[in-house]
Amino acid sequence: MRTLALCAATILTAAPAAAETLRWARAGDGLTLDPHAQNEGGTHTLNHQIYEPLVLRDTDGELVPALATEWEVSEDDPTVWRFTLREGVTFHDGAAFTAEDVVFSFERALSDNSAMKELLGSITEIRAVDEHMVEFVTDGPNPILPSNFTNLLVMDSGWAEENDAVEVQDFAGGETTHAAMNANGTGAYVVESREPDTRTVLTQFDGYWGQGEFPLDVTRIDFTPIQNPATRIAALLSGEVDFIQDVPVQDLSRVEGAGGLVVRTAPQNRSIFFGMEQGKDDLETDSIEGENPFADVRVRRAMNMAVDRQAIQRIVMRGQSDPAGMIAPPFVNGWSEALDALPEGSLEEAQALMEEAGYGDGFRVQMDCPNDRYVNDEAICQAVVGMMGRIGITVALNAVPKAQFFPLVTGDDTEFYLVGWGVPTFDSEYVFNFLVHSRTGDRGSWNATGYGNAEVDGMIESLSSEIDEGARDATIEAIWERMAEDVVYLPLHNQVLNWGMRESVEAEVDPEDQPKFKRFSLQ
Amino acid sequence: MSRMARAWDSDLAYGFRRSPLAVLSLAVLLMLVAGAVLAPLVAPTDPFDPASLDLMNGFTPPLTENEFTGERFLLGTDDQGRDVFSAILFGMRISLMVGVLAVMLAMVIGVSLGLVAGFRGGLVDSVVMRAADVQLTFPAILVAMLIFGVAKGITPVEYRDQMAIWVLVLAIGFSDWVQFARVVRGATMVERDKDYVQAARLTGRGSLSIMLRHVLPNVLSPVLVIATISLALAIIAEATLSFLGVGAPPTQPSLGTLIRIGQDFLFSGEWWILAFPAATLLALALSVNLLGDWLRDTLNPRLK
């Protein structure tokens, strides 16, 4: 088996690398190059090398200028945000970057197929004031609008029109477009070649505006998704790759002990949790006809008690996680120690709750789980299958790669699933908009639980225009309490990031797990 | 003379007694098969019942006391706290069952087609043998993966776990019939012109009856050899498919699935998760293979 792993690793290194090439590997590939088609971390990470947003976060979580140099609320009207754009920026094909491109990109991100709509829900108008000034009008004062922009990447309007890419790719519908496979951004790297799930090569952009501002030591990025953890770690140990974003937790000490390699660790801004379909009258994959056991809050509460978070942390994650009682990490505004306390209750109490709900004999259901997205995702699912078994719920596990898994969640086609959520805005509103608000056209696109009621929806909608910070925080807390009471999700833990790299690679770990290679320096 | 005694004195049995390797192989194979068949009685835990697993037992080394639960396991536990020894016994059941059923399927298809092709000749022969040639141009594992993929696509999700085993049988069986067909066809072509067949024809027997009653028994000995060697290959094919993640599901692991799971821990020092299932697969495939080799040598008159 060792030979097998090594063989696989050897194949990856057919091309000898120049000194400035960074060979980068992680478990899964970006799903698409279309920057608005999927709101998914791995996809954004790849696209951030090629495209740029108006504002970005540094590794401390502070907003810093990217394509915008300044931003402020208009003095005359609190519902208008004014962004001054960077001058002298060009796209990879030489076209100049102007306000028109920003208006086009944001309108595109608000269009039907876009996965980014929830971030822009409060925007009513986007207007170009002049070549280098854009104004965003919101339906009420929105003090945190800029923090919603960190993953909104700007495309070239002319290129999109020429290449039939004005419409966002319908990812869940299985569509492929020119923009899904090609890109024309302002970012530091240009797509040289792309084979999805196999290899993507990016080369440095000669005309990049940031020359002199960033190290830009990496001139070429050779990205290879390696799903198998043993193969991935073999590739790093044998020097086939320089940087892996997800060192398997079982191999941390091995990498640290190997000469010339280093693991850089930081808590990640990402929660892992389970969702259950609780809105439907009947489940498709369960063994009980005409009823939805998940619709009963007692069942959900019993399940929440049955999940042994400490055991998962200790054995599956080998200590590399922080067990959680809410689905947002401490980075996020709205997090509190009280809300994050682990659910109480013994196995016996959980069993009694199942009995009380009328499911003492248990039932069968299917769980969908990604196997190349989160740290030890499949092993977590397997462990939870066992824990559910103890309260009578027999779970059939369907573990698939994320490219097949995510459409199940965004298409509302799963009834019990594991998913992870990072919060690029560092504010709870983002979590609520995507995961808690009922599924309407503009909100709730990742809420596959069927949860939603007018009261909570109203509270969530009020957040974007509440200017009194104290009142806003109170509403956030009320929503979290309500979520805990209704057991909308089963929180599990927050991930810890382990980036493995050669000692010669100098990089600060980004809590959003989004390496920006222009910031890397090589010794 | 009783049947047993006659069997004991036969050439085959005599040759067997004289070959220590064959005796050893059979002993190992019988032991493994007995372990698999009696798994529910022998295994200390039921590895297919996820509810019975205690995650805190995870990664316990062989014969060592677990630091949290204080339990000990003969061959240690895997990442889910599953007893490796029990998992191997139960996993072997799946591997053996899939192997035996797949070979039987391949044998039925291959022998029937080969018999008809060899006996009839002409167009029927051409069609069957060209089909076999086409099949041979694809690696067996690729055909098996193709069948597996299609079957997975058309089975409803809730039955997938139960179906996985049968799909494996179909996938391996359908990719493995060619050898049987070729050998039986060749032997049948030799037999069909012999006098006893002509005599049977003269008595007015139908073709089907001649094929089954007269020709078939005379072409069976090479089939026995191929079946044995195919069994080893089928067990390996099942392990390969499961290793690639398209075979038995992780909640009902076969030997291949166990090896796939263990491979993740190859570099982290938990060697037992991989080593014991791999050694079992090796012993199983090797003993079947050695028996098959011995059988081929013994039944081939030219080698005597």
List keywords for this structure.
heterodimer, A: 523 residues, alpha+beta, nine-stranded mixed β-sheet, 15 helices, globular, B: 304 residues, mainly alpha, MetI-like fold, 13 helices, 0% strand
Describe this structure in words.
The complex is a heterodimer of chains A (523) and B (304). Chain A has 523 residues and is an alpha+beta fold. Helices cover 27% and strands 23% of the residues of chain A. In chain A, the strands form 5 sheets. In chain A, strands 1, 8, 9, 10, 11, 12, 13, 16 and 17 form a 9-stranded mixed beta sheet that branches. In chain A, strands 4-5-7-6 form a 4-stranded antiparallel beta sheet, with helices on one face. The longest helix of chain A has 18 residues, at 469-486. In chain B, α5 (84-120) runs antiparallel to α6 (122-137). The radius of gyration of chain B is 23 Å and the shape is globular. Chains A and B meet through α1, α6, α9, α11 and β15 of A and α12 of B.
What are the SSEs and their pairings?
The complex is a heterodimer of chains A (523) and B (304).
Chain A: H1 2-11, E1 21-26, H2 41-50, E2 55-57, E3 63-65, E4 68-73, E5 80-85, H3 99-109, E6 123-130, E7 133-138, H4 157-162, H5 178-181, E8 189-195, E9 199-204, E10 220-225, H6 229-237, E11 243-244, H7 252-257, E12 261-276, H8 297-306, H9 309-316, E13 321-323, H10 347-356, E14 363-370, H11 377-389, E15 393-400, H12 402-410, E16 416-422, H13 428-436, H14 454-463, H15 469-486, E17 489-502, E18 505-506, E19 521-522
Parallel strand pairs in A: 1-10, 1-11, 14-15
Antiparallel strand pairs in A: 2-3, 4-5, 5-7, 6-7, 8-9, 9-10, 11-17, 12-16, 12-17, 13-17, 18-19
Chain B: H1 3-9, H2 11-17, H3 20-37, H4 39-42, H5 84-120, H6 122-137, H7 140-154, H8 160-174, H9 177-192, H10 195-202, H11 207-243, H12 255-263, H13 272-299
